[in-house]
Q: What sequence folds into this?
């Protein structure tokens, strides 16, 4: 069978296998038991890393347009709805609550497990990768960022930039996200003719950007090979334990949110006496979300399960679920937070409470702007790493490490995203006085 015709996730898995084998072989060549390192190895490493850098640059290229168009369009669709005053505020309030709880769970678990704490030998190997990508430089950049911060109030000051174009060019997307939310809301309040013009413009622009994003992600197998191989080459087997422990951390955090936080919200806010009924009702959608790693692709089945199996009306499902597929990404927000703190631990970066609060805020806000397509959260992770002060070289290394286990974790967090959306539909339906839900 032609691998080029395989589904994307199988191509990525094949690319990972090739990257691991190639990286280990080159690592043995680079560190021979006797003799010297061949001259051709440096050129080979550069050629492979070139592919990863090109893919990473393409992802960075679409950061600003993808985040801005997704947020503006999502807010316009909500703000212009006739039921926005009641259903919209309820739904958005629930989504913000679950997203915040998810990020807090991720923050607590990653600080307890500390998957980025590695032995000095592995850290030394990582520092040797790239001329400028060493822990001292990362720590220095973070210290500069922390010295410039005067606590939590400084974060809110950065939310209101003096020049949104300069903020976008410099990668300071916190202010750009805030501006996009305000712009989307007030654009939704325009007179009908003007609003329709704005909506058509942002819909077409967002569709084009999402299509471009999907095109770039089609090259993910090549990018994965280019990012992962140099990382394995320079670290050997020492990094595998770190990656496994990181994956375990994410799985535990997602499990707590999926099995503890959301059922509690169903019971307390949705008055659902037996949350297990909702798991059974949503099982077809959850399995589909896990297999496709796309909340958007799963949306029709999600709506069917919530309506037919859980008993929520078509009015509530038609309002809450399409909105949730765009703006409610509990698993994604949790994952983004864990990744950033994990990489900070890995590079021995000290993050004070103000910086961790900024990570929480950015993880929550960027999860709104992430399209419901596989691996799009990589874009949001790059945004947060830039905001946290990581140098370009370190971002490349960090993304290369995360990509090794990203696909399986992507499938898991998509299932959590879809389940969070379905919980919102049940809670909102109950609050609207609907009967027959999960009975």
A:
């Amino acid at each position: 069978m032609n691998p080029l015709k395989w589904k994307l996730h199988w191509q990525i898995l094949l690319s990972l296998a090739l990257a691991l084998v190639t990286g280990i072989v080159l690592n043995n060549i680079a560190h021979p038991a006797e003799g010297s390192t061949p001259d051709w190895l440096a050129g080979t490493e550069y050629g492979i890393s070139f592919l990863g850098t090109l893919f990473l640059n393409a992802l960075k290229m679409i950061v600003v347009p993808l985040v801005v168009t997704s947020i503006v369009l999502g807010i316009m669709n909500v703000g212009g709805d006739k039921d926005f005053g009641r259903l919209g505020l309820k739904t958005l309030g629930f989504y913000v609550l679950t997203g915040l709880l998810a990020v807090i769970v991720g923050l607590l678990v990653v600080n307890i497990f500390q998957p980025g704490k590695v032995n000095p030998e592995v850290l030394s190997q990582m520092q040797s990768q790239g001329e400028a990508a060493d822990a001292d430089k990362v720590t220095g950049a973070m210290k500069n960022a922390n010295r410039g911060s005067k606590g939590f109030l400084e974060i809110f000051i950065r939310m209101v930039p003096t020049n949104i174009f300069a903020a976008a060019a410099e990668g300071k997307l916190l202010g750009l996200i805030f501006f996009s939310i305000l712009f989307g809301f007030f654009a939704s309040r325009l007179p009908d003719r003007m609003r329709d013009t704005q909506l058509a413009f942002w819909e077409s622009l967002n569709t084009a950007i999402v299509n471009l994003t999907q095109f770039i992600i089609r090259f993910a197998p090549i990018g994965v090979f280019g990012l992962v191989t140099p990382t394995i080459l320079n670290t050997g087997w020492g990094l595998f334990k770190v990656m496994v422990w990181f994956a375990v951390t994410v799985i535990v955090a997602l499990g707590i949110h999926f099995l503890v936080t959301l059922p509690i919200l169903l019971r307390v806010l949705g008055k659902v006496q037996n949350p297990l009924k909702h798991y059974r009702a949503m099982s077809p959608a959850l399995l589909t979300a896990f297999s496709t790693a796309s909340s958007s692709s799963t949306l029709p089945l999600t709506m069917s399960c919530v309506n037919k199996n859980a008993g929520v009306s078509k009015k509530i499902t038609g309002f809450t679920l399409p909105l949730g597929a765009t703006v409610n990404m509990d698993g994604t927000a949790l994952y983004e937070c864990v990744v950033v703190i994990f990489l900070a631990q890995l590079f021995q970066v000290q993050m004070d409470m103000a910086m961790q609060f900024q990570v929480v805020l950015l993880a929550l806000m960027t999860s709104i702007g992430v399209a419901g397509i596989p691996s799009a959260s990589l874009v949001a992770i790059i945004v947060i790493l830039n905001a946290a002060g990581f140098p370009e070289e370190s971002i490349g290394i960090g993304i290369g490490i995360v990509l090794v286990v990203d696909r399986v974790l992507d499938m898991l967090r998509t299932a959590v995203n879809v389940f969070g959306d379905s919980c919102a539909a049940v809670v909102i339906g109950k609050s609207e006085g609907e009967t027959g839900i999960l009975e």
